[in-house]
Design goal:
globular, alpha/beta, 15 helices, 511 residues
Amino acid sequence: MLTGLVLALSVLGSLIGAADARKMMSKSELHARQVEAAKRFERTPRAVAKNHNITFKNPKASQFYVDGKSIPEVDFDVGPSWSGLMPISADPNETRKLFFWFFPPGPEGSLDDLIFWTNGGPGCSSLEGFLQENGPFQWGVGTAKPIPNVNSWTNLSSVLWVEQPVGTGFSQGEPNIKDDDDLAAQVVGFMNQFLEVFAELQGKKLYLSGESYAGQFIPYIANYIYENPTALNLSLQGIWISDPVLGWVVTQSEIPAVDFVHKYENVFAFNQSFMAELDAIAVQCNYAGYYEKFATYPPAGPLPLPGNSTGADPGCDVWDTVFAAALEKNPAFNIYRIFDTFPVLWDVLGFPGSFADVQLSPLYFDRTDVKEAIHAPVNVSWTECANINVFPNDDASLPSSFSVLPKVIEKSARTVIVHGLADFILIAEGTRMITILHMLTQKTGGGLQGFQTPIANDSLIVDGVGSLGTAHTERGLTFVEVELSGHMVPQFSPLAAFQSMSFLMGFRATP
């Protein structure tokens, strides 16, 4: 009996040993696969330190010079740049000034072009876009220190990041604008003062770009430049706006909210009874089936309001209902990118997210050494988004899609609208519907409204990646949707953003 037991244990031990060996072999194979997979994504970084050598003759330029080897926490040379405060007019008593940071093109960039970038808000700093989206170095969420940005837009051309309007970031003065026409006049005034100092940039081809509320800013600035052709010695070619504010809240957030939850049911993880409540609200508020009925190619006419409000009728604010429930399920839920869960990665800027999350104080741009390095006022407490209303009595302008955007599309060589499909604060399907609407007054194509042919699935092909969403072009407008990307497309899908910007500038044939 004992002999049999020993034999049985021996056999069992052999089997267990074999199983363990198979497990170890499996782990070894897995590691080999991981190593091999990593090799596929190794890229030779684009150079960031050897920018084109631009010299500026105006002695005033030297006071804005930033040594690329002396930027705090950046342990590599980012090359020369210029930053500081610039007044919005030539009036010697002018107190309103905008803060800028200008970089010349990297070795692959064009000397004939200039990209203007602004963030949204209104009142949110363009230094967020600089540091975490499309600048020559980046300090992304969860990253221990700044790193070179291989997808920097300086690899396309010179880039000018501007904190505007007055009251945003380091920009100084008392906000006094009533609408986006006022804002555009101030930006153009600033640009003229900038070109006075950096005169070698005059006559360049200009591309206006930005995200979020810049969907309001950028079309109005572009329209101002087109309607005042002698106001600025730059040749405006087109605009690029990402996840933009284009129309009414009801269209961009409320109508598509429940459909968005259904699309990402496993992410929201709501139970069936709550889903039934959301569906009932959608029916009651005329949101249900709205997209299928009106998002047609070609469109049947202007989009009607589903109720009486451009925001939401009483009982119909389903977006906030979803947001509150999402935070209960996932306290780390991020309206800017719905896939986020715990742990919440630290952010050197403390925002954006569903809520501010300052894990290290002071914030990077509020450090005295950083302010001194970039010629920012040390007595200003920098926050990513302004604590004051930069439109003292709110923005009186109509949404750009109902006013200036069609004219800007008409006059531009190209216009690109990009939208991340994982963005909840502004939902892509809402932007699709407005994209159909906002071309209503275009003369090109016989005054046709919107896209005449459907947007094809898998039509956005990103180099080295493959299909990553959709892309569609008609009559000067290109609309791009990016899978996996949240609100800040240059941050969440930098290759797609870089490629679509390159398309806007005519450096490639497809977005």
